[in-house]
From TrEMBL:
This protein's GO CC annotations: bacterial microcompartment
Broad class of the protein's primary localization: other
Keyword terms, alphabetized: Bacterial microcompartment
Family: Belongs to the bacterial microcompartments protein family.
Native source organism of the sequence: Enterococcus moraviensis ATCC BAA-383
Protein name, as recorded: BMC domain-containing protein
SUPFAM superfamilies: CcmK-like (SSF143414)
BMC domain location: 8-92
Keyword Amino-acid biosynthesis: no
UniProt cross-references to CDD domains, sorted A to Z: BMC_CcmK_like
Amino acid sequence: MRYRGEEALGLVETIGLVPALKAADEMLKAANVELISYENIGSTLVTVMIKGDIAAVEASVAAGAKAAEEIGNLTAHNVMPRPISYVGDIVSVHDIDG
């Protein structure tokens, strides 16, 4: 899914794929958000990216960060209310349906 900066952006970064998948699952269940993409840097850092309205993204990222921390290593999480559209070029490199 191409992200153009029109909605809030949520990110959760973990060490390893298993906590990232757990985070993604919880993020998508926690609120009305959409999965944009993921980034896997080698076999270590994995970032899951979602979009939606600010309240939904905040709730989603909180749930995903908590879930990842419970089973693995959470390295970072962030909510960007409405980043500039150029950020979309970065986060859409590995978009889910592209």
